[in-house]
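ARCHIVE RECORD
Type: protein–small molecule complex
Small molecule: 4'-phosphopantetheine
Source of inputs: curated submission
Record status: active
Notes field left blank by submitter.
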Amino acid sequence: MAKAIYPGSFDPITYGHINIIKRAAKIFDELYVVVLHNINKKYFFSLDERINITKESLKDFKNIKVESYDGLLVDYAKEKNINVIIRGLRAVSDFEYELQLANANRSLNPNVEILFLMTDTEYSFISSTIVKEVAKFGGNVSQWVPKNVEDAIIKKIGNNNV
Ligand code: PNS
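STRUCTURE (tokenized, with ligand):
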């Protein structure tokens, strides 16, 4: 059975992520969407919130499992015995960071292959950062994230009094 991992911060998940997930789930029998920690990011949602929101957003997909991991991505891959990691590329600006990440991961574990899917153009400008910024200023983000994500952002903003 062909398996792959789609890792990310998912703070929160957007239709851009879901675009990649849908397409990867067609290529692989089983796709593990794993919520991880990016040391360079200060998170808006807690890890538990990110997991729950991601699970809810993907509940209709049959061959997708949502998990979290508190460690190196390559160690998660080894534990799961999965050698394929999927990442999305939206624009050239993503490339440098992704190249660094891919090379570091392959240096840590040469058995891992990182496959890139180009995000469909209609989602190519969407990022979790933009979604949060627009929502904080009262803008409509319903075209960029599922309803449960929009609700969670609005609730969080209300709680934080931003
Ligand atoms: O959605 P993001 O923030 O671009 O995802 C980055 C992520 C979480 C995939 C990356 O930071 C990661 O793999 N973190 C887990 C810890 C790890 O393995 N870091 C070393 C990568 S060289």
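CURATOR ANNOTATION: The helical segments are 15-27, 47-57, 73-80, 92-108, 128-136, 147-160.
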